[in-house]
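Hey, sorry to bother you again with one of my protein questions. There's a protein on my desk that I can't quite get my head around. No rush at all, and the record is pasted right below.
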Amino acid sequence: MNLKKKKKIMREIKNKIISISERKDAFKQTEIGRIPKEWEVVRLCEIVKEDKFAIVDGPFGTQLHSNEYVDSGVPLIRVNNINKDGSFNFNELVYISEVKFKSLKRSAVYPGDILLAKTGATIGKVSIFPKEFEKGLIASSCAKISIDKNKADTIYIFYFLLSEFGYKQILALSTGATRPTINLTPISKITISLPPLPEQKKIAEILSTVDQAIEKVDEAIEKTERLKKGLMQELLTKGIGHKEFKDTEIGRIPKEWEVVKISNIADVKGGKRLPKGHNLVDFRTTYPYIRVVDFKNMSIDLANVKFLLPETYKAIKRYTISSNDVYISIAGSVGLAGLIPVELDGANLTENAAKLCNLRRVVKDYLAYILNSSLAQKQIHSFVGKAQQPKLALFRIEKIKIPLPPLPEQQKIAEILSFVDKRLELLRRKKEKLERVKKGLMNDLLTGRRRVKI
């Protein structure tokens, strides 16, 4: 999405919203907080269809087993199909037969029904059953909610349940500490701030517009990621403009290239765990400490970086990483590789990662890209095996074999891939901004702090 189109969307949204004064007489206090005087507070059971299956959960596990799944048929909706952002995940679908569907029809779901994850770590996730399907069946970990369109707008109710106001109620009404669950009776008692129907529809329209903009950015991200994957496969095995190739132990590569071990081009050194009795701190000091959780998109996510106190730094000050090095994770999420931003030059490095330093005959960006390629990742996974707690030994890293073009070609390959990465970073920032806009709008529109034009 280009800047011009994005600004147009935001103008359209602003044109549909009017601010209201903070006059005390414009609001009333209710059990769910302050809302405009003309709004109602209703329970979910008051706005669903007059049908005994308007709020229903899936069949018990004993009624449906995974060995009854079929290659095609009626989709079975599980918590995997409900994304945290409210979208529907088509990639994790499984199917049951028409015969099985008919035997469990009380748990049927139809286009426009609200889906709610009601068990475990996924509790509170909501989505809409998509119009791409004629019908479906919900699993035991889900519930479906069918709204009476004459009483409320389904999309408005969906956004309310998706908001922090809905989520907090779901958690509060759930039972069980280790594996929380919300049953149908508490679901039916969820309270909702309900504007007049035309205002509900307008609020739903505005929030849907933002979601459509986010979806467009997601599509652009997905397309750019496919482009990057294809370019990496092409550039890191065939190079730029080569006509002659040779077969090697790591596959076919340009004739002028070499095959080298990491030990031939870099030193591999580990990070350091915190001394016993020492802890990281959230407030900024001059001693940042980089963890594997901070590794993101071949760089470092600066948002949640932790810091060392001076006395902790003194104990582990030798275990640092510079912006000239390449990092690689060696425990947990093994094989994440990338570069250190200049602002973290000299930061301390976790014991769950290693640094490739004192680089020789290799451009650091090229090395980071090749370590993220399928060629290197296959070797890393073979070294780690299928251990329950995977760990990549430093001497194994030294044995990783990579193709090595001449330095000018390494630089050119890295520049091409970096250009694509910059595009990806720009798109991700756009998405983050739109998500912040959506969160702010939900907070304001679903409470009446800002009103819409009807």
